[in-house]
Amino acid sequence: MNPRMFWLFIVIVVVSFATEVQATDPLPSWNDGQTKQSILTFVEKVTTSGSPDFVPVAERIATFDNDGTLWSEQPMYFQLFFALDRVKILAPQHPEWKGKEPFASLLKGDVKATLAGGEKAILEIVMATHAGMTTTEFEKIVKSWIAAASHPKTGRRYTAMVFQPMLELLAFLQANDFKTFIVSGGGIEFMRPWTETVYGIPPEHVVGSSIKTKYEVRNGKPVITRLPELNFIDDKAGKPVGIHQHIGRIPIMAVGNSDGDFEMLDWATSGEGLRFGLLIHHTDDKREWAYDRDSHIGKLDRGLNEGPGRGWTIVSMKDDWKVIFPFEK
């Protein structure tokens, strides 16, 4: 073999090897390191038959928070953007809102003053904009908004603001016979219309906050109507309760990004056998946002203090992720 053919052969071998390695890497957007390896090792142990840590398929439950874990949550929760847009649409039907808070400030474009009312103001906005229609009507409204609304900073559709490394993690778990669930403080019926398309998570695998509904017959047709009353808040200590009610099994893996997820991770990782807790730490102020202990959205304080001692893995978005959003690829 002449030298030229020899080096051509070497190049082909190297390229082929690199391509094969890339093709077999289930988490290509994750940088190699301890964080990525801890995920791969956990999945290998619980799915390898004969392993002392083997977990039967029926018990392979993984729960994921949504806001700040699977997609961004800054400068405020995306569902709140949806609610604010709904207020503007519904305002002509409610002239009294011009002199009533939190609606008055919102209609003047003063979102900061609107949110100064805290959870009470947010809840009032959600109740006014998410109720009074059937569940089918609400689903259509959500789908239309998701298809058209854009993030105020990036100009991207909100469903483009999902985290590419997390999409890969979901796909990796699903390929290894995990049942993946969303367990979020967000509205269950706000998420269900689009999670299967975006995450591969069907609506029956979504657990979230909810308002009350009732069955009734309209024009001879049975419908479920949404009422302006709170039913369940799926946040903090409510998350394990929601998991118990909707899923009926304790997860062996739980993933979140804030102290609102602490109880979910605590409950999941305190069970018998090998368990895995994962916290997403927003550390990249260039590609996304950097925030934690003092943030008004997605505060992460207790998790940073206690997570490592509980054996939880903490992801640094800046250090552990090659890309953050799918549109960066």
TrEMBL record:
SUPFAM superfamilies: HAD-like. It catalyses: O-phospho-L-serine + H2O = L-serine + phosphate; O-phospho-D-serine + H2O = D-serine + phosphate. One of its GO terms (cellular component) is cytoplasm. Residues 1-23 form the signal peptide. Its cofactor is Mg(2+). GO terms for molecular function: L-phosphoserine phosphatase activity; magnesium ion binding. Pathway: Amino-acid biosynthesis; L-serine biosynthesis; L-serine from 3-phospho-D-glycerate: step 3/3. Keywords: Amino-acid biosynthesis, Hydrolase, Magnesium, Metal-binding, Serine biosynthesis, Signal. Its EC number is 3.1.3.3. The keyword Signal applies. GO terms for biological process: L-serine biosynthetic process. This is phosphoserine phosphatase. It comes from Desulfosarcina widdelii.
